[in-house]
Design brief:
Growth Hormone, Chain: A; 412 residues; 0% strand; mainly alpha; single chain
C-alpha cells in the first residue's frame, strides 16, 4: 500500500485521487458509525422518556454547536497547519461518544442528550480540517468531483450503518431498549477502525496541502459581496431543511409503519444521498451554482410529501427527495467555498460557512419543533418559503458571476 501511494512516477492527479479515495474510506467507516447511531436517536430518546420538543431541540442544538465551533477549530487548523491532528482528535471525540450511549437508560436520559451534543462537538473539531484537505485536490479533480467522491463513500457507510442497526433492532429476542444499547456498542467497533485508518492516512500523506499551489484567487473573502450572498443562501437552505429525527418521530406518531423500520428508511435515504452526491458533484463542475438551484427546488418538495399525506408511497417519495437534497448539499455547498476562499484561509472559511449554516439549522429545527404540535401546514409553508428564498439568493449570485464573467466552477 505504501509503495502505491508514494510512487514518484504517479501523476499528481492520480495521487490526488488516491488521497481523496483514502479520505472517502475513512468517511465510510465514520459515517457507518455515527449515521447508524443517528438513525435511532429519535426512537431511542423517545423510549427513555424524551419529548418531541427536546428531541427536535437537541438535534438542532447539536447541529448548531457542531457548526458554530468550526469558526474556532477552522482558524486553529489554518493557524497551526496541523490538519491531521485536528482530524484525529475530532474523530475520536465524535465517534467514541456513541458506544457510551449504550450505557444510558431512562433513569439518566439527560446523559444521552449530553453525549449526543458531545458527538457533534467532535465533528466540529475535525470537519474544517477535513474539508480543507479535500479542497486542496480541487485543481486536479474538480471541486465538485472531489467532494462528491468523498460524499459517495461517506454515504455508503451511512447506508450500511443504519441497515445493520435495523437488523439488530428488529431482532425480537431481547427487549427493545436493550437492542438499541447493543447497536450503540457494536457501532463502537467501527469507531475504532476509523481511528486506525486515520493514523495510517497521516503516515501516507503527511502534507496533503501540497496538492494545491498558493492560491491565485481572492485574498480576502469575509467582506466579499458574493460570499455574503452565499452565506444568506445557505442560511435559508438550513432553516428550511428538516432533520431526520423529526421525520422519524412523525412517522412513529402517526403509526404509518412499524418503528423498527425507521432505521431501514434512513439507510435507504443514505443510499439515495450517495448517488445524488456523485450526480450533483459532476453537475456542479459543469454548470456551477445552477446545480445547487436545482437541488433547492427538490428540497422544497420534501415536507409536502412527508406531512401532507399518511400514505406510505408519499412518505417514500419524501424520503427519496430528502436523500437527494442531502447528497446535493454535501457535494456542492462545500465545493462553492473552495472557489470563494483562498487556500491559506480555507479551513477558516469552512468554519465560518459551517457556523452560519449550523446556526440557521438550529433556529429552523427549533421553529419546526414548536410548529409540530401546532400546525403541520405551518411546517410545510415555512420549509417551502425558506427554500424558495434560498433559490432567489442563488439566482442573485449567478447574476453577479455572469457580470464578472467568472462562473463559480473549478476546472479539473
Amino acid at each position: 500500500m505504501k509503495k502505491i501511494f508514494n510512487n514518484p512516477n504517479d501523476s499528481i492527479k492520480k495521487r490526488a485521487f488516491l488521497f481523496i479515495l483514502l479520505l472517502g474510506i475513512i468517511s465510510f467507516f465514520s459515517d457507518f458509525t455515527h449515521e447508524g447511531a443517528r438513525s435511532i436517536y429519535g426512537q431511542y430518546l423517545s423510549i427513555i422518556g424524551v419529548s418531541a420538543f427536546l428531541i427536535s431541540t437537541t438535534a438542532g442544538l447539536g447541529e448548531f454547536i457542531g457548526q458554530a465551533l468550526r469558526i474556532i477549530t477552522g482558524w486553529i487548523a489554518d493557524k497551526t497547519g496541523r490538519y491531521w491532528f485536528m482530524m484525529i482528535l475530532g474523530y475520536a471525540v465524535n465517534l467514541l461518544a456513541i458506544p457510551l450511549l449504550g450505557l444510558v437508560d431512562a433513569s439518566i436520559w439527560q446523559v444521552a442528550l449530553i453525549l449526543i451534543l458531545i458527538e457533534r462537538i467532535g465533528k466540529a473539531i475535525r470537519a474544517p480540517a477535513k474539508s480543507a484537505l479535500t479542497s486542496f485536490t480541487a485543481p486536479h479533480l474538480g471541486a465538485g468531483k472531489a467532494f462528491a467522491i468523498n460524499e459517495a463513500l461517506d454515504q455508503a457507510g451511512a447506508f450500511l450503518g443504519p441497515l445493520m442497526v435495523f437488523f439488530i433492532v428488529s431482532n425480537q429476542s431481547n427487549d427493545l431498549l436493550l437492542r438499541y444499547q447493543v447497536s450503540f456498542g457494536i457501532l463502537g467497533i467501527f469507531a475504532i477502525v476509523t481511528l486506525f485508518l486515520l493514523v495510517f492516512a497521516k503516515k501516507q500523506y503527511p502534507k496533503p496541502q501540497g496538492f494545491e499551489d498558493k492560491t491565485k484567487g481572492p485574498q480576502k473573502f469575509v467582506g466579499d459581496k458574493k460570499f455574503i450572498i452565499y452565506m444568506l443562501a445557505i442560511s435559508f437552505i438550513a432553516l428550511g431543511f428538516i432533520d431526520y429525527p423529526v421525520i422519524a418521530y412523525h412517522i412513529g406518531e402517526i403509526n404509518m409503519i412499524d418503528v423498527i423500520y425507521i432505521p431501514l428508511l434512513y439507510s435507504f435515504a443514505m443510499g439515495i444521498d450517495a448517488i445524488s452526491a456523485l450526480i450533483f458533484g459532476a453537475l456542479y463542475d459543469k454548470i456551477g451554482i445552477g446545480s445547487l438551484m436545482i437541488s433547492v427546488i427538490i428540497s422544497a418538495l420534501i415536507s409536502p410529501f412527508i406531512f401532507f399525506s399518511n400514505a406510505v408511497v408519499s412518505l417514500i417519495i419524501g424520503i427519496v427527495l430528502w436523500g437527494i437534497g442531502m447528497g446535493a448539499q454535501e457535494s456542492i455547498l462545500k465545493a462553492v467555498v473552495a472557489k470563494l476562499v483562498p487556500k491559506e484561509k480555507r479551513a477558516t472559511g469552512y468554519g465560518i460557512f459551517s457556523s452560519v449554516f449550523g446556526f440557521a439549522w438550529f433556529i429552523g429545527s427549533l421553529l419546526i419543533g414548536l410548529l409540530y404540535s401546532r400546525s403541520v401546514i405551518g411546517i410545510v409553508l415555512f420549509t417551502v418559503v425558506m427554500q424558495l428564498a434560498a433559490f432567489i439568493m442563488l439566482f442573485i449570485l449567478v447574476q453577479l458571476e455572469k457580470k464578472d464573467h467568472k462562473p463559480i466552477i473549478l476546472e479539473a
